[in-house]
Amino acid sequence: MKSYLTVQEILKRKHFVTSEVAAGKEGLHKPVKWVHIVEVTQIKRLLKGNELILSTGVGWKENEQMFISFLEQLIECNAAGLCIEMGTYTSKIPSEVIAIADQHQFPIILFHQEVPFIEITQDVHSLLINQHYQMISDLENYSQQLQKMLLIIDHYHPILHFFYQYTDLQVIIKLNEENIQFVPEINPVKRKELLNLISRENNDQKVMTKQIIQVLTRNYAELFVVSPYGQLTEFDLLAVDRTATALAQHFLRDLYVEEKKRVDEAEWMTKWLIGELTESELTSYLEEANVKEQGCGAVVCVCRPNPQKRSVDFTYLKMFLKTLFEQHGFDLFVIERRGDFILILINKRSVHTWKQRIEEGFVRFLNTDYCKRQNFFVHLLGIGKLVTNVQEINRSYQTALETVKVQEKLESNTSIHFYDDLHMYRVLSLIQQPKDLREVMMEYLEPVIMYDQQYNGKLMETLKVYLECNGSKQETAKRLFVVRQTLYHRIEKLEKLLGTDFMEPKKRMAIEFMIMAYDYLFSKTDQISS
């Protein structure tokens, strides 16, 4: 599988049976790409390299200095060796010539009998031509097998292993600085040596070659091939080129499949976000995504990138976040929409701990080296309202967008913002936009209203008076004409319905505003349906 012979192989031909290697035995492995008969001494401009020179010595005869000059020109031109017919013009080889040839591992071969130079050139050239045709045939066979392989494989590793089996050369593929693979695998010491070799700018191109694998004009990977046996052959280099092309085709197909999958996934998730999926369609998509638990609620997070951000590897980011939030009890879906990264998290654990777990997950993410290097978030995260039914994810999405919008107008020391914690800022936002005040009011007061309707618990009245008394239990009990034990029971029920933090300043202010909205929107005789 090479288009040349070595000097050693040529010495086995019939015309060389009685020849003698007088010098440069260490260079018998050198490749021979052509044979020339040369009888002139100024040949520096006539040679291209790897020629085996046949000569009678008529050019230098017994002139030792001219002989040395001729030899040095051959060595400088990277000739493969020198064959001399002894007797007619050359009777002996000077010791200095032998020393120079040995020093440069340059073979000098002597014919002690007259030999037909023309027949030698015909014989060797016929071999070289036949080998070249054989190489083309082998290369075509290799290419055909590669193309067949591309139809059935689902990973690039079989291509690299096939190349290795065909050529017995060390293969290294570099997808990025962290992902460098060797075929076959080698020990750490040898691995370090090869990494040093491929990292050098002026490395030995005879034993190593490098191919840039381009996919859609992008440098997708680097393929290195190193020969442990000396110089790479022409077949090796052509096979590397075919292999790089096959890898590019495989990577392109992978990118197309991934992009198609990503587009399809983005399409149904966008419909999910804007509320256009039917329940059966959503159930089917979630089952296909292997999401089994849907009864613990779901929430949307909007991540708004920095306009000055560097490009982000979306696939890596998605995999990273999925792995992270899986550890915190969520199934995660990620899409890009209108310049935002949208995260849909389906809760798989207790509803009471969802906020804490989401916050812990994002804190971990923001503190990773990856996130600090990228630095691609500004307002960073707006986390919407938890919805109990995944079919209503649009509500959570809208509240996440509102959270980001509110935070854009604020200077905050924190980067993680929950819709549930905005309170009066939501009210201020509401004033600036046409929105149903009743809907926001019901978000805060519906649990209390519904409890009163069902049990006649007088919790709304208790809440109003308790707030008016600034949380004084003694004054509240006095104004309501109830004993303290009854008041404590009602306050405990309010904490369960509104949250234990309902008396904290910001939330309390929002609740007081919503009570005023309630009194404004509904008379005492009005009934509020669920």
Automatic annotation (TrEMBL):
It comes from the Bacteria. Residues 9-128 form the Purine catabolism PurC-like domain. Pfam families: HTH_30 (PF13556), PucR (PF07905). InterPro entries: CdaR-like_regulators, PucR_C-HTH_dom, PucR_C-HTH_sf, PucR_dom. Residues 459-515 form the PucR C-terminal helix-turn-helix domain. This is PucR family transcriptional regulator.
